[in-house]
Amino acid sequence: GGVALLCGCCHAGLRNTLHHLRELTSAPLLAVIGGAHLEHATDAEIEAVTRCLQSEGAPDLYLCHCTGERALYALHAAFDERVHPCPAGTVIDLPDADLLA
After folding, report:
1. d(CA 99, CA 8)
2. pTM for the whole structure
3. Which residues of 42-53 are buried (b: 16+ CB within 10 A; e: fewer)?
4. d(C-alpha 60, C-alpha 65), whole Å
5. Which domains are delineated in the chain?
6. pLDDT tens string for the chain (101 positions)?
7. 63 in helix, strand or coil?
8. What is the largest CA-CA distance in the chain?
9. Could you report how far apart the first and last alpha carbons of the chain are, in Å?
């Protein structure tokens, strides 16, 4: 089991949101779904988010909306097959998720 994090447009920052998630649960992070609000992020911020996600065990990433192309390319370079296209209407099956946060 584990948790899937659903983000609309992660204005608080993905690292902050993941930190808050860890205050709520220690369950493994299986997936991050939604906008990561990295469209205008610096390279350093994208690298910091990448390291944060790696420390979470490299969850599946279904990113869209405000994530931004540069961040998507960087995350794909780091996580390869764990980065999934997520256009409107995408159906995501998470049979191992016990919790959606």
Report:
1. 17
2. 0.92
3. eeeebeebbebb
4. 17
5. 2-100 (3.60.15.10)
6. 899 999 988 989 999 999 999 999 999 999 999 999 999 999 999 999 999 999 999 999 999 989 999 999 999 999 999 999 899 999 999 988 887 66
7. strand
8. 35
9. 14
